[in-house]
Structures are given as C-alpha cells and as structure tokens.
Write a structure and sequence with these properties.
It is a single chain. With 396 residues, the chain is α/β, with parallel strands linked by helices. The protein folds into 2 domains: 3-208, P-loop containing nucleotide triphosphate hydrolases (Rossmann fold), CATH 3.40.50; 218-375, P-loop containing nucleotide triphosphate hydrolases (Rossmann fold, 3-Layer(aba) Sandwich), CATH 3.40.50.300. The protein is built from 15 helices and 14 strands. It has helices at 10-18, 26-36, 51-66, 81-94, 111-123, 132-141, 157-162, 166-174, 191-200, 227-241, 253-265, 279-290, 301-304, 324-331, 352-362; strands at 41-44, 74-77, 102-105, 127-130, 151-154, 181-186, 205-208, 218-224, 246-249, 270-273, 296-299, 314-317, 341-347, 367-369. The strands form 2 sheets. A 7-stranded parallel sheet has the order 3-4-2-5-6-1-7, with helices on both faces. The protein has a 7-stranded parallel sheet with strand order 10-11-9-12-13-8-14, with helices on both faces. Strand 12, helix 14 (324-331) and strand 13 form a beta-alpha-beta unit. Helix 3 (51-66) packs across helix 4 and helix 6 (132-141) crosses helix 8 (166-174). The radius of gyration is 22 Å and the shape is globular. Residues 389-396 have low confidence and may be disordered. It binds adenosine monophosphate (AMP). Adenosine monophosphate binds at residues 21, 24-25, 28, 47-53, 308, 310, 336-337.
Length: 396
C-alpha cells in the first residue's frame, strides 16, 4: 500500500518521500486508517515495525486539518530520553514540509533546556514528546496548559510500567481534557497494561502485529560458554567478522562499563552507553555509532529501546536477557526496516534454563554454534540439568 492512499496532504507526502518511505509497513497499513477515523487504539507491535510513523503520520494529518493555533494538541509520553529524541527526529523529518511543530521534553542537566521546553509548552508547540518525570516537573511549575490537547499517545507503555511510571502517567492524564483520542503502543500486553488501557482509553480498537516474534530476517545463534570464555570469544567474533556496526548488550550498568573497559584494553573501537553518562555524552556516543565513526557500542537494556540505528550488522547478548521481550528488543536492533542481521547470545551454564524459557516463548530453538576449539572445552547445553533451585542444588 502506498502512502497516497491514506489521503494525506501534499506537504506530508513530501516529508514521507524525503524520509525514503515508499510503501506502508503492515502496522502503518492497519493503524493509520483507525487513527484517522478518530478511534482509540491499542497497538501491539515491536520496534522496528514502523510503529512511530504509524502514529505520527495520522497525528500530523489531523493537526493540519485542525489548522494552526497556539495550543499543544498532542502529547506523546515515552519511557526514555533516547526514545523521545528519536521520535522527535522522525517528527522533524515527516513534518518538515508542513506547519506542524514539535518539541521533545526529556530534560537535560542544564537550566537552558528547561527554559526552552517551558517556552515551547507555553507557546504551544503542536506536538510534545516527553518522558513522564520531566513533564511532571513542568506541570508542577504551574504554567502548562493542556486544554487544547486532542491526542494522547503512550508509546512503549509496557516498558513505562516496568519502570514504575504508572502513577506519573495517571497524574499527567488528570491534566488532559476528557474529550481526546488515545493511542497506546506496547510490545507486550501484561495485565497492568489492560488496567492502564481501561483507565485511559475509550472503547479502543486493537491491532496486534506479530507480537513477540523477532523479525524473520535475523539469523539467531547462541554459544554455550563459561564466563571465562566470553571475552576471548567476543574478541574473536569482533575481530574475525570485520563488521562495521556491532551492538553488545549487558544486563547491568556495571558489567557494561567493565566490558567496554576490557575491550578498549584490547585495542577495539568501543564505547559504552548507560544511565550514568550525562545527556551530551550519550548523544555523542550514539551519534558516532549512528554515523559509523564508532564500530562497537556496549549498552544496557533500558537503552536498547532508544537505539534507532540503521544497518547494525550484529547484536551480541553478552549475557542472556532477563526475559523474552528484552531478547526481542535487543535482537530487533539489527535487521531494522529492510536490512538483515545476526544476533548472537552467550549462555553460561546458570543461564541455560533462562534461555530455554525464552526459546519456548518465541516458539523457536535457536541454533547452538560450536565454540571454536582454541577456547577450550565449553559447557554442554543441557538446560534441564542446569536448572538450579534457589538453594543452589540442581532440581530433580
Ligand atoms: P520504528 O518501528 O518506528 O522504530 O521504525 C523502524 C525503522 O523503520 C525506522 O528507521 C523508520 O525510519 C523506518 N521506517 C518506518 N516506516 C517505514 C516505511 N514505511 N518504509 C521504510 N522504512 C520505514
């Protein structure tokens, strides 16, 4: 389906063309007509499916229809600064040839960004993309006027709830006019999302798009290894594959820092990105990675949601992700849009059972590659046997 078929304004079509989009992705095909009809929507779609444009395009079109005015008309609430910036960048590209304005309100450490956000909020940028905490800070200052809001988008709502933002979201919603259109996107639909949807949405239409299944184009591999084999094997993979863009995931901030230090000591072109870095440094590292000036990026899960980088050749899970959704989000960083990619997971004996649970969830057995002999004997992959009880004894 081409974008001409949605009845978009010429200016918006020009923006779509400038972004290089030719045909609508499945989520766009399904969601855009529902949103243009004015219906509330729950969309289950993982990132990488084109869901950002699926809600931005109809919002921009509706705001064009509405005409210019100095009031905030749409509020998009997202879990992380990185995602806010990414959506704002999409917005800038898509709305470039229209009068629709936007600003990302995610906080920085300096007072000038707060003042700039305040200015846009009071002048009435058409679309605000915000993180919950920062928006509450502005609301508490008393100058935010949301009486013109017509649209609310909750993006990656499952992640926002995981991060404990339920009350903040409800507080923001309490400042919005009751008469508005609501769109909620999430990769998973746990019961808390249903509760949020019941409180915030009105008779929503539901769209599910291949929930929880990683895109077919990703080649998934796993190595059963001891912890001591992880760095040598990682170094071997990084050096032998000569790839331009590799994203390595660790579960914790401290392991992210430690791993990037160790890889740097090996002379590899690597940087880490985690929540301890200030905003400017994070953006610089991300930009360098985007522009392929930096080949290897080590990151934590929280940040995996905000990394929209094209042509990542390989994702490496240095440890097994916490659950299936994190696994999908991590490996979904490769094979974005039309590209293909490789996702490799390192599994130590203690993680074998966790990995099998993920495989069951995906309904897929990931190929276990043989660890090259120079790394010594590797653990046998036997998740049942390695399923430990909490007291450390194997289960019967
Ligand atoms: P998202 O799922 O919104 O994070 O989008 C994933 C990637 O696909 C982004 O880099 C988008 O710019 C890109 N994209 C979105 N819609 C389309 C489309 N219709 N055609 C080609 N690429 C797209």
């Amino acid at each position: 389906m081409t974008f001409n078929e949605f009845g978009f304004e010429p200016g918006l079509l020009e923006g779509i063309m400038a972004m290089g989009y030719e045909t609508a992705t499945p989520i766009q095909e399904k969601a855009i007509p529902v949103i243009l009809k004015g219906r509330d929507l729950i969309g289950s779609a993982q990132t990488g499916t084109g869901k950002t444009a699926a809600f931005l395009l109809p919002l921009i079109q509706e705001i064009i229809n509405y005409g210019p005015g100095h009031q905030v008309k749409a509020l998009i609430i997202v879990p992380t600064r990185e995602l806010a910036i990414q959506i704002d960048q999409h917005m800038e590209g898509l709305s470039y040839f229209t009068h629709v304005s936007s600003i990302a309100v995610y906080g920085g450490t300096d007072g000038s960004s707060f003042m700039r956000e305040k200015q846009s909020l009071t002048d009435g940028a058409d679309i605000i993309v915000c993180t919950p905490g920062r928006m509450i800070a502005h609301i508490n200052m008393g100058y935010v006027n949301f009486s013109g809001i017509r649209f609310l988008v909750l993006d990656e709502a499952d992640r926002m709830l995981d991060m404990g933002f339920f009350d903040d979201i409800m507080k923001i919603i309490s400042y919005l006019p009751a008469n508005r259109q609501n769109l909620l996107f999430a990769a998973t639909m746990p019961s808390e999302i249903r509760t949020l949807a019941r409180k915030a949405l009105k008779d929503p239409e539901e769209i599910t798009l291949a929930i929880s299944k990683p895109v077919e184009k990703i080649l998934q591999l796993a190595y059963s290894v001891y912890d001591s084999q992880k760095i040598p094997l990682l170094k071997f993979l990084l050096q032998s594959m000569k790839l331009k863009s590799i994203l390595v995931f660790c579960s914790t901030k401290s392991s992210t820092k430690q791993l990037s230090r160790e890889l740097k000591n090996l002379g590899l072109p690597v940087e880490a990105i985690h929540s301890d870095l200030d905003q400017d440094t994070r953006e610089k590292v991300l930009n360098d990675f985007k522009n392929k000036k930096l080949n290897i990026l080590v990151a934590t899960d929280i940040l995996s949601r905000g990394i929209d980088v094209e042509n990542i050749d390989m994702v490496i899970n240095y440890d097994v992700p916490h659950d299936g959704e994190d696994y999908i989000h991590r490996i979904g960083r490769t094979a974005r849009a039309e590209a293909s990619g490789v996702a490799v997971t390192f599994i130590n004996p203690k993680e074998q059972y966790k990995f099998q649970v993920i495989e069951n969830l995906l309904d897929k057995v990931v190929h276990k590659a043989t660890v090259p002999v120079q790394f010594g004997e590797s653990p046998v992959y036997d998740p049942k046997k390695n399923r430990k009880r909490t007291d450390g004894r194997p289960r019967k």
